[in-house]
Amino acid sequence: MNIKSGSNLIKVRKNNLEAILGTIYQQAPITRNEIARQLDVTLPTVTTTIRPLLETGILREVPLPSSEGIMGRKAFAVDFVENAGFVMGMEWNPLGIFVCITNLRGKILAKMRKKVSVQKESYQNMLIYTKDVAEELLQIWKGDRTKLLGAGWATPGIVDPDQGKLVRTSMSYVNWNNENVCGNLEKLLQMPVCVENHVRVRAIRQDMFERKERPEIYLYYFAQMGISCCVMSDGDPFGKGSYGIGDIGHTVMDAQGPVCQCGKRGCLQAICGEGEIRRIAAELIERGGAGYLKCNCEDPVSPEVHEIAAAIDQGDEDLMEAILPALQYMAVSIGSIADLLNPRLVVLDYALFGSHRIQEFMTGEIKKNYYFVNEMDLQVEYVQADRYTGAQGACALAIGKFLIGGSVI
After folding, report:
1. Strand pairing partners for 92?
2. What is the distance between the alpha carbons of residues 342 and 330, in angstroms, rounded to a whole number?
3. Is there a contact between 296 and 319 (Cβ–Cβ < 8 Å)?
4. 403 to 13, 186, 398, 400: CA distances (angstroms)
5. In 57-122, which residue ranges form alpha helices assigned H by DSSP?
6. Fewer Cβ close by (within 10 Å): the C or N end of the chain?
């Protein structure tokens, strides 16, 4: 996060505010002197910038442990007050509408899902459902609505965050194009709204809320019904608008493979997306296999991906054998992207990877398919998948836009 120059004084102050708050958010508790040193600005610039936020209670001073017991004036660091504000996150995906409320550090305080067959619903109906779910969630939360900074929204496809529009959805059989999502939701929810692509908010979420040290460039690979890969560069998703959405689910991996919903054969998501993995498992149960899964899933006709993962870790060998060929295609796709960009890290977000056995298999296969494996230290990391990571990521987007970006300060 760097201070940006500019001839317009208001613009410079806004850039300074964003850089300083971003540094505090990622590294707090942190001293004013350290912020000034990292951003190469004067200490008075830092002090003047954060003073109003200390007065309003968004930031607080924290005594440094090293200063306790030392004579003289105590040294203080600054940090965000996690419950000084709240945000709402919303995601539309093939499984329905997911909404949650978090504090400033991403802790989910309330959440709700509405099951919707999105391919059968109009855009207007989705807006109405979202409004209803948001209002019901606010009733359940019972928090201070005056502290709601705004809401973030995400969905698969091309989203233009600057214009606040859904340019084109990538969900099969859904025809939502050129929709003013931001304006529509702001009118319905009566709060500021920002919008973004669904995999990009997931990558933003893990970068903001987990606050781990990351390489300058790494991959965030997400699989659900579709499959996407976000390239993270210096803490931000690469590209914007119609660029950098990373939708690779329709990459043809086998010209003779299964027919995808898009009409082509052998698309990656048709081979190893959730829909196909669940179909393989259900077919195996019907043939008399996958005994553990059959006895321990809620619906043997349509087992859930997390149930499949649990069954594999419990020793369902025929189930493991049945899905490995599909996962090999996914490993090939990840290895190919790694060959192109040479990242030091790949983060994998897929409910199926809740299985430790599958994690071991995937790590080995990815490195087997990465040409520079002997020259580059490629790390593979697994996200604890959750149906609300998209909505939570939309919360991270809203914090970045309305708090760190200074829109509501």
Report:
1. 97
2. 17
3. no
4. 15, 17, 8, 6
5. none
6. C
